[in-house]
Amino acid sequence: MIRYIYADELSREPVLQNSMFRDRAAQFKERLDWDVSVDDRGWETDEYDELNPLYLIWQSPDGRHAGSMRALPTLGRTMVNEHFRHLTDGVTISSPLIWECTRFCLAPGASPVVAAGLLLGCLEAAIRFGVEQAVGVFDARMPRIYGRIGHSPEVIGTSGEGRNAISVGIWTVSEETRAEICRRSGITLEELAGWFDASFNAVIPEVRAAA
Amino acid sequence: MALANLETTLERLQTTRSIEDLQVWAHELRDGLGVTHVLYHTGNMKGEQVGAFTYDLDWVRRYIEKGYSQYDPVVLGAIRRFTPMDWKTLDWSSPQARVIMREAMEAGVGNQGWSVPIWGPAGEFAVFTINHTATDADWQSFLEARKKDILLISHLVHQQAKRIFSRETDTPSSELSPREKEALMHLSQGMSRQEVADMLKISENTLRAYIDSARHKLGAMNVTHAVALALAKGVIVSHGALPKY
Q1: Which of A197, B16, B44, B245 is the most buried (most CB within 10 A)?
Q2: What's this model's pTM, rounded to 2 decimal places?
């Protein structure tokens, strides 16, 4: 199932948190050899994890991470605008109607439905919140994976070649795409809506004011 | 409110020159949307509380005097997220929150709310709320029809409040990259999006992201308005007047 968890609530789920950041290290450091940092705990994190992003996480029945991505509003600091503007024609992409979705990660051996679920989770949230597009950063093999799921991003720009290529791309949100990926993946619209409601439309735990 | 009326209301927003103006405008927006209340507030513009709202003034004074923002689930939720919140999904179970809710209702605040957290590029923070008196079903259909408009309006109000506070009269055009200006210029000449995308050798969806970014930076409510503003501010010049080589 997909869960939507803000960074500041993630520590309440230590197993999920630990397995997600370790799977990110395995994917981005070990497999892709990106220039990312891994700490003593074996977690891959960057400066954007500090900005209280929203994580979309596929949680396995055993409570562990099977796949995830990270969403941030493009009106604040984003990876695309701060590090990849040479791939977007110099355009700073910022609008309340556009999110940034990065760090698309799959746990080793994750079932194919996980990748589809993550894209669906992103579409569902975008539709529910009125967001129209998502911009993302991904490695060369991802467009094929996204294409198989039925929702290929349009690549805006690419740097590097072969397996070292990194692209910035854009997804456009539509109910038709959501229906198509549901059809292909076997995830139902009801399931998807249920996951969203369980995260956002449940009572949140009481928090205390910082003031 | 019909789209044309909403555009007129948003054009009026750009003529506001003081927080008092913005307060008057908030009432126009409320009447236009046909809702119970609208509320914009931000806590950190030059250290002052700034707000524009249709709430009863005595209620707002009481809220501030009592320091209710420390316990208000809307504020506590908004400072921790960027996604809009339906009031129903917030935790109103603390004794303080229950008092706030009860007193708000007594002051004429409606039972439904949709609050948009606003985070600016400089880390500034504001909240824009639409409040209404409606059944859950009616509220749901209102939101379905309006949530995108509300998202746009919330950021336009915030931009205008910032402009009022910094005494800016214009939107800085330097934020627009040459590519965005190029796209707006072609649109101003009446080219279709497909034609502009072909001209710039980008996909239509990429073009959409570029012009939506330009729209936001110009403080416009739609593409037509963005083109008009860009021309008016001299960010772009109408290409028709220039020789084409």
Answers
A1: B16
A2: 0.92
